[in-house]
Amino acid sequence: MGVERLDDTDYPALTIGRAADLIGVAPAFLRSLDAADLLHPHRSDGGQRRYSRRQVEFAARVRELADEGHTIAGAASILVLRGDLADAQRDLATARAERDEALAERDEARADLARRDAGG
Predict the structure, then answer these.
(1) Cα(51)–Cα(40) distance, integer angstroms
(2) Distances (CA, A) of 37 to 59, 61, 99, 104, 108
(3) pLDDT digits (tens, 9 = 90+) for 49-88
(4) How far is it, in rounded angstroms, from Cα 77 to Cα 94?
(5) 76 closest CA partner among 42, 29, 44
(6) In the chain, how long is the greatest CA-to-CA distance?
(7) Is 6 helix (H, G, I), strand (E, B) or coil?
(8) HSE-CB of 53 using CA atoms within 13 angstroms
(9) Which of these, 72, 84, 65, 78, lies nearest to 36 by C-alpha position?
(10) Distance CA 115, CA 108 (A)
């Protein structure tokens, strides 16, 4: 186990108190996300909650949306839908790039065929 694990966004390095301090909430807010089945912190051997940077970022986004008037469940749904939309947009961009590549290959093959037919 090295210090490089701290660079891993999924490494559970933060205690509940430190995670709460980072996003400006009481530890009870993080416990409520766990109780609502929206955030699943890792547990130390002693049962202490440990949060990763990714989990703290998610909790911070939930808090921002809650501050805007959304319920915690609503905020979590918004974040899940935003993630799904981002995934779909990436998939669409990949599909379009693959389509464009296939069209270019088709056009090149047609041009080769036309040149061969014209010369032959």
Answers:
(1) 9
(2) 12, 16, 40, 48, 54
(3) 999 999 999 999 999 999 999 998 899 899 989 999 999 9
(4) 26
(5) 29
(6) 80
(7) helix
(8) 7
(9) 72
(10) 11
What pTM does this model have?
0.70
Confidence of residue 3 (pLDDT cuts 50, 70, 90): low
Tokens at 25, concatenated = 């909430």
Phi-psi region for residue 87, left (φ > 0), alpha (ψ -120 to 50) or beta?
Answer: alpha
What the block records as the tokens of 14 is 């933060």
Residues 66, 109: Cα–Cα separation, whole Å: 56
CA distance linking residue 35 with residue 16, whole number of Å: 14
DSSP-derived secondary structure for 64-100: HHHHTT--HHHHHHHHHHHHHHHHHHHHHHHHHHHHH
How many helices, marked H, and strands, marked E, lie in the chain? 4, 3
